[in-house]
Design brief:
The complex is a heterodimer of chains A (about 450) and B (about 450). Chain A is of the alpha+beta class and about 450 residues long. In chain A, strands 3-2-1-4-5-6 form a six-stranded antiparallel β-sheet. A five-stranded mixed beta barrel of chain A has the order 7-14-15-17-19. Chain B has two domains: about 220 residues, PmbA/TldD fold (2-Layer Sandwich); about 240 residues, no CATH class. The longest helix of chain B is centred in the N-terminal third of the chain and has 19 residues. The chains are: A alpha+beta (about 450), B alpha+beta (about 450). Strand 2 of chain A pairs parallel with strand 3 of chain B, so a sheet runs across the interface.
Amino acid sequence: MINEVIDKSKRIFDQYEIYSITSENHPISFESNKLKEITKKQTSGFAMRGIKNNRIGLSSTTNPLKFDQLIENVKNLSNYGSKTEMVFPSGSIYSNIPIFDESLSSVSEDKIIENIKSFIDKLLSISSNILVDSKIGWVIGNTRIINSSGFDNNYDYSESYFYANANLIRGDDMLNIWNGCSSHTMLSEAELDKSFFKIKRNLEWAKNTSRSVNSNGELPVIFTPEGFLSTFLGPLLEGFNGKNFLNKTSPIINLLGKQYLDKKLSIRDNPHSNELTGSKPFDDEGTSTRIIDFVQNGILGEPYYDLQTASQLSLNSTGSGGRSISTNLYPTVSNIEIDNGDENFSDLISNVKDGIIVDSLLGAGQGNELGGEFKANLSLGYRIINGEIVGRVKDTMISGNVYECLSRIESISKDVENVYGSAKIPAIKCTGVKIASSN
Amino acid sequence: MKYKELFSDILFNNRSDYSEIRIEETDSTRLVYKGKELDNISQNISFGGNVRSAYKGGWGFSSFNFLSDIEKDLNNIHTEAFLQAKSIGDSKTNLAEVEPNIDKVVNSSGKNPNLVTIKEKKELLEHYIGLIFSSNKISSADVIYGDMKRKVYFGNSDGTYIEQEYSHVISRIAIQTRIGDDILESGFSIGSLGDYDLVENLEDLVLEHRDKAIGLLKSKTLSGGEKTVVLDPILAGVFVHEAFGHLSEADNVYENKELRDLMFLGRKFGGEHLNFTDGGLINFDNNPLRGSYKYDDEGTPATISPLVREGELVGRLHSRETAAKLGEKPTGNARSIGYSFPPIVRMTNTIIEPGKATVEDLFNGIKDGIYVKNWHGGMTQHEMFTFTSGESYMIRNGKIAEAVRPVKLSGNLFTTLKNIDGVANDLEMNQGGGCGKSGQSPLPVSNGSPHIRIQNCLIS
C-alpha cells in the first residue's frame, strides 16, 4: 500500500514525506485502592507532508483505506500551505540507543497487579485513610519515516510507566501527593520503591499544616527535583524554543553566549540517555538527534529547532522535530538533564532560618510563560523554620521570573534524581523568591 | 442506521453484565499563524472505536483504529474487553437504570464550516492579521482557527443505539507587545457548536485586544495579597468550572468517604445568592452551547442539573456507575474525548445563575480593589484552585481605573464561596475553553456567569 502512495507522491510533489506509527498500549487502572479497569489501546496512523512550489501541505489519517483522500488533501493544502526552503534529510549515521526491550512483548499482568497491590498496602500501613489512584502500563511501538530524499528508516521502542496519586482528607483539608516513573525496560521494584519513598516523605512533611507564612515578601526557596520541573522547566523551554527565536518572542534572543544565569547551572537536552524515556535515534522528521546544551555554567547555549523553523533562519535542525499523527511538526525536547552541585539535600534545609520547600505547583504555566514568568499556587509546599520542616503551607502563591530566579542560585544538591523518567534534576535553592499568602 | 444490526448481534449474545461499542469518524481542519506568517495548515481524517465491558464490578476496555473484517474484529475485541473485565471483577456491577434509546441526532447549529473553502478561511485570518499588525507596536501574535466534525455510532447491551453528530468551531487570537525581555499579551478565545458565523466579523474585537496589548506596555505589576475583586462573566464562569464544578463530579466522591462527608448534599457553601447549574441541555438565547448534546457517551440523555441552590449543595454530576453507587439519578455527564478513552464524569455547560444586583452595585463602595476580566487558564486540585485573568484593572472609589498586569487568583473553595458577596444580573457565556481531566483534553465545554464580587481574594 505504501508503495502506491510513494509512486503517486513522486508524480505530484517536489518533495514528500510519510510518517507512520503503530503502537499497543496496555494501561491498568486502580481507583480508590482497588483494581478497576484493564485496557488495551491499539493505535496506528499515517501523516503525510508534500511540498510543491515551495509550499507545504500536511494531512493525516488513521484509516489506511483513505490513502487516496490523504494524498488529495495534501495536494490541495499545498496550494495554501506555509512557504518553505527546507529539504527532507537523506539520513546519516544514527546513535544506537537501547530503547526497545523485547521482554515487554510478554508481560505478566498478574505480577504487575501484585506489585501495585503491595505498593498500595505499604501506603495504607502509613495511614489507613489513604486513597490511592494508580495507573501502570506498558507500550510497544514502531515509528517509520519515508521521504523523497531517500530516507526509509524505522525503530522499535518500548516503555513501561507507573504513577500513583495518594489522597488524604482531614476535615476540610485535602492532601494529594502524586509521583510516578517510566523506563524503556520493565520498571523494577526498586523504581516503584523510589516513588513510594517520595510519597511517604511528602506525607511526613505534610503531617502538620503551617497555615500562614505571615509575609508577603521574599524568602529562600528550595525546589525539589519535582518542584524544579514544575516551576522552571515550562518557561525555560519556551525561552529556548526555536519557534520563539524565529518569531522574536523569546526573552533570551540577544543573550546567547552570555553569562546570564548562575555559574552553578548547566542544563542540556540529551536524546541519547540510556535511562530516560525521551531517547530516540532520529527525530520525527528523520534528522539524527544530538545533545543540545541550553545552559553551560550559566552561559546560554543554543535553542532547539525542527527543519522548517531552522530553515527559515538559515540554520540546521537540531534534531528536535516532534509531532503526533494529527499535529504539525514543532520543536520539542527529549530528556532534560541538569548537573548536580555539591551539597547534601539535608544541608540545603538545615541552613535555612525561614523558608519554603516547593515540591509541586498548581496552575503553573498559565501566566506569561513566554516572558519567563512563573506564578502559581503551592500544591505541595512546606515551611522551614530554623532548619526544620515544620509543616505544609497552603493558600500560598509563589511568583517571579525564571531567569532572575536562576541567576540567584545559592546551592545545588549533590544528588540528581530521575524525575518521572523524563528528566534528571537536582534540588536547587534560590534566594529572594516572592511569596504571597492569605491571612 | 449504519451499525445497528451489527452492534446488536455482538452485544445481545454475551456473558458480560454490560457492554458497549463505539465507532467514530472525525474530520478536522486547523490553521495556525505565528506572527504574520502561516505556521501550518492541516486536515486530519480519523477513524476508530472501542468496546467497553463490565463484569462483577470490573471494567475492560479495548480501542482500535483499524478493522479489516468489521464483524469478526469487533467480536474478538468484545471478547477481549470482556475477559479483561472478568479477570478483575470480584463484586457486583452497579449501573443506574437508563431507558434504552434508538435515535439519530445532529448536535450543531448555524453556518456549516465544511461549506467554507480553505482559501476563504485563510483570507479571513489574514484579514485579522492585517488589523493586528496595523500598529508597529505589536511584536507578535498567535492566530488559530480549528473546526471538527465528529460522528459517533454507539450501541450498548441494554438496547440503546444512537448515531450522534457533533460539529465544533474554535478560534484563539492572542496579540503580543514587548518591552525589552518583557512580553505582554492580550487575547481572546471563542467557540461554538459548529457555527462558522462565530469567527466572522471579529474586526472590533481584534482591534480592541490590539489596543489592550499596547496599553499593557504602560501597566504596572501589582504586589501579591488579599483584595476585593470583581470578576467579569467570563472569568467568573471559569471560576465556577474550576473551583466548584470539578468537585461536584461524582467520580471524585463515590469511592471516597471522607470527601463524601465533606461534600454532603445539604452542605451550606455560601449565601442565598449562590445558584450553580450544569447540563448538556442548557441553552443560551435559544441556542445550544459548546458543551451541549442530546446523549452522553454512555447513551444517557443529557439533563439540566442544579448543583447549588441558595448556597446549599443539592446535586452532583454522574455517570451511570457513580449514580448507582450513590443512589442518585444519572445526569448524562459521562463523556469521552474520543474513541481511545473510556467515558468519565465531566461537566458540560456550567453556570452561575444571575442574581438581583446590578453590575454598578458590585463596584459601589469598593475603595481599593481589582476588576479582573477574561481568561488565560485555570486549574484545580480538590479544594485548591487557581486561575489567571486575561486583563486586570484597579478599582478606586467604585470606579474602574488604570490597567495593571493580569493577576492570578488562588484560593480555597470553601472560604472563597463564603466570600462571594455579590452576584449581578447580567449572565454571559464563555465558549472558548476546553477542559482537561485524566489525560482527556481538550473536551468541549462552556461556562458562564454574571459579574460576581469576592472579598479577601488572594491575588499575585
